[in-house]
Amino acid sequence: MKNEMRKTGFVFLIALAIFWLNSAASAERYSIYEIQYTNDPNGESPLKGQIIDCLGGIVTHKFNGFRPKLTIQDPNFPLGWGAIQVKDWLSGAPLYTKASVGDWVTLTNVEVEEYSGGGTTLQYYLSNNPDLTVVSSNNPIPDPLLVDVNEIAAPVYQANPEGWLVQNRDAEKYEAMFVRVRNVTVTKKDNGKACDNYTLQGDAEPNNPDFSCWAADYMNEEREADGYHSYVELDSHFCGVTGIIEHYNGYKNYYEWDYYQLLTTKTDDFLVIQPADFDNDCDVDFLDYSHFAQYWLVDCYSDPNLCGGTDLVENNFVDMNDLVKFISHWLEGVN
Predict the structure, then answer these.
(1) Class (C level, CATH) for 145-271
(2) Are the C-beta atoms of 330 and 280 separated by less than 8 Å?
(3) Which of 17, 220, 253, 290 lies at a C-alpha separation of 20 to 30 Å from 1?
């Protein structure tokens, strides 16, 4: 009996030791929201410096630059604090190769880091024995959140120390999320620390025409050799520009930068014109329908303007085919 009791006690101690070791080795698990949400005036995560496990999200973008990174977003938090970038130190490293866009991934033993404060990232340091697990694949990418340029206010230049600094941190909650600004015009280029930012000025409501935001194309694989996408020229007007919000900040050689930028990722991020937007106000509504109705069943064969643009399928006649295409764009761009 004593031997059996000793064996039972020994087994219990072993089990307790294994449980304690596993508990000690496991990092705390957090959602992206819990990592990102902050009241800190500089935008720093409350988990700064901690090694954690992340419940993860959907991979929305991959960038294999000098430092490869994934952008992941949790669709359960569509209005803010729902996305984060995960960075590695080796090009082509497992972090980048294991995951594909559309994968829901979780992460273990990643470090919450703030680059000079505010730029919250998860660092994939090999010394921490990190790992990435693909939970599911082919998930839909979350739709971009429509925001005003007012909410991503462009920085203000300062002379001493020289640099560009944020006007406010309203955009902090959108960090790493896909967002879209509407009805904007490129008014300046060659801004910022890397001289690759351009100004998007709000043209109409709900944007305040006194406000603007900054954008950049360095993560856009379809950009030109000069670093800009070919669409980005002075006075270019866009009905919409979609991108990932990045908080870019640092200090070097008496030069300081701290601002938010909208990073485009592909050509389709630029909405040059809304199809079926005949009055060029960046939406498709009853005014456009009224214009369309004027040309119903009209022969456009000899009209170089294709019946005021209403011959949407370009078959030289405004008919049911055009109506179907018009309906497919109905209320696009309308808030």
Answers:
(1) mainly beta
(2) no
(3) 17
Which amino acid is present at 170? D
Q: Which two tokens stand for residue 80?
A: 């803010």
**Concatenated DSSP letters for 62-111?**
EE-SSS-EEEEE-TT-TTSS-EEEEE-SSTT-HHHHH--TT-EEEEEEEE
Amino acid present at 224: E
Closest CA to 149 of 185, 103, 112: 185
| Range of lowest pLDDT (14-18, 53-57, 85-89) | 14-18
User: In this structure, how many other beta carbons lie within 10 angstroms of the beta carbon of residue 146?
Assistant: 14
Give the C-alpha distances (Å, rounded to integers) separating 85 from 24, 130, 133, 171, 244. Answer: 27, 15, 16, 15, 10
75-97 pLDDT per residue, tens? 999 999 999 999 987 655 778 88
Residue extents of the structural domains in the chain:
29-136, 145-271, 286-328
Give me the residues paired with residue 261 across strands.
214, 246
Find where tokens 């957090």 sit: 30
- For tokens 């999320």, what's the residue? 177
Task: Choose the CATH number for 29-136 among 2.40.280.10, 2.40.50.140, 3.40.47.10, 2.60.40.1080.
Answer: 2.40.50.140
Confidence at 18, pLDDT banded by 50, 70, 90: very low
pLDDT, one tens digit per residue, over 240-258 is 999 999 999 888 777 889 9
From residue 73, give the alpha-carbon distance in Å to each of 29, 208, 244: 16, 28, 11
Instruction: Give the tokens for residue 31.
Output: 């959602």
Out of 41-45, 180-184, 217-221, 303-307, least confident range = 303-307
